[in-house]
Design brief:
By secondary structure, this protein is an alpha/beta fold. The chain has helices at 38-48, 81-94, 139-148, 157-177, 191-196, 211-214, 216-228, 250-262, 297-303, 307-316, 331-339, 350-354, 358-363, 384-392, 396-415, and strands spanning 7-8, 14-15, 19-21, 54-61, 73-74, 101-106, 126-127, 153-154, 181-186, 234-240, 267-271, 322-325, 345-348. The chain binds flavin mononucleotide (FMN).
């Protein structure tokens, strides 16, 4: 089976198998320092013992002013020796059994909620252009968006240079700590995704106006991270898929991916969704299949939310290493996706919080029959109070936000040395 086979990235990094623990914000690093702490190490030790091919950390924010959530980890240019020590411990804990670990770096841009980051009440979020998040047409949805996120400030070129420096500083800190690489978060509607998209980037300078210019900030970050680290340091990026409901055109996105691939990335992870339309948090359960041969494309699409877009990338860029994340729950579905050529690696998030040792115990465990090697999760339902709120404020992000908080709670249980709640069906 491909799923258990070792593979390599262009930077030379070897992965013992094809299963990647996808990035999940741990929500365990409180203000003011936002540094990784002992509880996080306890949680990551569980994953380190799980037999994964690669671990991606939760998103680490690069700007202390703008976090994605109030408990996010923060990287820093001027980390004290104590902070450097805990980062080193974090890297070595993740990698103590030979699984390489990669830090995901992020700037939320217009998606930094009120209270996440050291800024005054009137300091605006940053974005390529002053385009506000749109949760829907109702008055209440408009008020929620204004109060929580506000209308962002269109970034000056100075702001852009600072953000590039912050990503590079985050990569340097990860490199010096002993992580094997970084993944730039260019998906889920965060700052880099805002630059790439014509819906949120209305600029007409060097950073907007054409697909190539909208990709410019990403290209500069990749080049500067490479210069600041080494040839052997892995640089990946997570991007959103383009589909019929997306405002981005396929041709423009392929042009941007071409430039990103040319800039020298080691992998491209495909996901989807934003705060406005959180597709990444779908809760579909896969059909049960008993052999990879019988899996039809429709079934495969049902198991993996974003595979068909990855297959389009593969057709255009045959050599790029592709991770697809979102929806994978069965060994046979994962194997079929790999065999379809649509991806090289399988990203798994929510199941990794319920079963931190999922690869070792189930997916790669030869004692478990193919048809039993699966992890179907009970859908997380909004509690009644949220249900009423959701009736008042019918935004899709409410359910997705609650799901995310629920699974972050599972990671926190791991950090407390407790077993995650077993929510398998
Ligand atoms: C608690 C939680 C936190 C997440 N945090 C991040 C994150 O920091 N960065 C990211 O790229 N995706 C994040 N995601 C999305 C996952 O990486 C993944 O794309 C999504 O959950 C779909 O995969 P799954 O169906 O295997 O869960 C998060 C998901 C959850 C449940």
């Amino acid at each position: 089976m491909l799923i258990s086979q070792e593979t390599g990235l262009p930077c030379g990094l070897r992965l013992p198998n094809r299963l990647v623990k996808a990035a999940m914000a741990e929500s365990m690093a409180p203000a003011p320092t936002h540094e990784p702490n002992d509880k996080m190490l306890v949680a990551y030790k569980e994953w380190a013992e799980g037999g994964w091919g690669m671990l991606l950390t939760g998103n680490v924010q690069v700007s202390e002013t703008y976090l994605g959530g109030p408990l996010d980890v923060l990287s820093s240019k001027a980390a004290s020796s104590d902070v450097q020590r805990i980062w080193k411990e974090w890297a070595s804990t993740c990698q103590e059994n030979g699984t390489p670990a990669v830090v995901q770096l992020n700037h939320p841009g217009r998606q930094s909620p009120l209270g996440a980051g050291q800024r005054g009440f009137f300091t605006k979020n940053l974005a390529p252009s002053a385009v506000k998040l749109n949760f829907g047409n109702s008055i209440l949805a408009g008020v929620a968006s204004s109060l929580l996120f506000g209308t962002p400030k269109a970034m000056t070129e100075e702001d852009i240079s600072l953000v590039i420096d912050q990503f590079v500083a985050g990569a340097k800190q990860s490199f010096q700590a002993g992580f094997k690489g970084v993944e730039l978060h260019g998906a889920h509607g965060y700052l880099l995704a805002q630059f790439l998209s014509p819906k949120t980037n209305l600029r007409t300078d060097d950073f907007g106006g054409s697909p190539a210019k909208r990709a410019e900030i990403v290209l500069r970050i990749i080049h500067q991270v490479r210069q600041a680290t080494s040839k052997g340091f892995c640089i990946g990026i997570k991007l959103n898929s383009v589909d019929a409901s997306s405002s981005d055109s396929m041709a423009d996105t392929m042009e941007q991916i071409g430039l990103i691939v040319e800039a020298g990335i080691d992998f491209l992870e495909i996901s989807g969704g934003t705060y406005e339309d959180p597709k990444m948090a779908q809760q579909k359960e896969p059909e049960i299949v008993t052999s990879t041969k019988e899996i039809k494309q429709t079934t495969l699409q049902r198991e993996s939310f974003f595979l068909s877009f990855a297959q389009t990338i593969r057709a255009n860029f045959p050599k790029v290493v592709l991770i697809v994340s979102g929806g994978f729950r069965t060994r046979l579905g994962m194997e079929a996706a790999l065999q379809s050529g649509g991806c090289d690696l399988i990203g798994i998030a929510r199941p990794a919080t319920v079963l931190p040792k999922l690869p070792k115990e189930i997916i790669l465990n030869e004692d478990i029959k193919d048809e039993d090697a699966r992890v179907s999760l009970k859908p997380v339902r909004l509690p009644k109070l949220y249900g009423y709120l959701n009736w008042l404020l019918p935004v899709k992000s409410m359910g997705a936000g609650y799901t995310s908080v629920y699974y972050a709670g599972q990671i926190q249980r791991m950090g407390d040395g407790l077993k995650p709640l077993d929510t398998r069906l």
